[in-house]
Amino acid sequence: MRIGLITDTHIPDIASKVPDEVAGAFDKVDLILHAGDIYDISVIDELEQIAPVLVALGDDDPFGLLKDERVEMKHVLDLEGHTVWLVHEPPWMYRPPWGSEGPAPDVVVHGHSHEAQIRESDGVLLVGSGSPTFLHYRRGLGTLGMLEITPEGAEAHIIRL
């Protein structure tokens, strides 16, 4: 399964729309995970023209977005036999033991930091895709992520726009 990762688009405050380069980068993805701070529902609708979209509510997103079935505070997904968490806050908020947060994740997709990063901690793959519009809090083209999941495992990489 090929999953496009995006976060912190901040539309329309930082950019008027999702950059055109995103569609090319997400060509042939099966799913798009947006790790929050979309600001406007139009972002989800625009991305859904590429593939199905799920969104974690960001700290700057209006709570009214939770009325949309694609938006949750946290998604816990079973993808190819792996538990994937989609959250906005950085993974340090979710340290082992995982406790009552639901099934322990194999992968945590997050946003909030505006920094592209992939790392492993205690056997969990942590992926922050940066921002396509506001990387390191600077306007302009930034980064996306790609997550490849098979029954055998998960790998991620960062895409520079």
How would you portray this structure in words?
The structure is a single chain. By secondary structure, the protein is mainly β. It has one domain (2-160): Metallo-dependent phosphatases (Purple Acid Phosphatase, chain A, domain 2, 4-Layer Sandwich). 7% of the residues lie in helices and 35% in strands. It contains two helices and eleven strands. The chain has helices spanning 21-25, 42-47; strands spanning 2-6, 31-34, 53-56, 71-72, 75-79, 82-86, 107-110, 116-121, 124-129, 143-150, 153-160. The strands form two sheets. Strands 4-3-2-1-10-11 form a six-stranded mixed beta sheet. Strand 10 (143-150) and strand 11 (153-160) form a beta hairpin. The two termini are 22 Å apart.
Keywords, please?
about 160 residues; Purple Acid Phosphatase, chain A, domain 2; mainly beta
Summarize the structure.
The chain has 161 residues and is mainly beta.
The CATH fourth-level homologous superfamily:
Metallo-dependent phosphatases
**What is the CA-CA span between the terminal residues?**
22 Å
The top-level CATH class is: Alpha Beta
* Biggest sheet, spatial arrangement of strands: 4-3-2-1-10-11
Name the overall outline. Answer: globular
CATH fold name: Purple Acid Phosphatase, chain A, domain 2
**Rg, Cα atoms, Å:** 14 Å
- How many structural domains does the protein architecture include? 1
Pairing-aware structural class of the strands and helices? mainly beta
Helicity level: under 10%
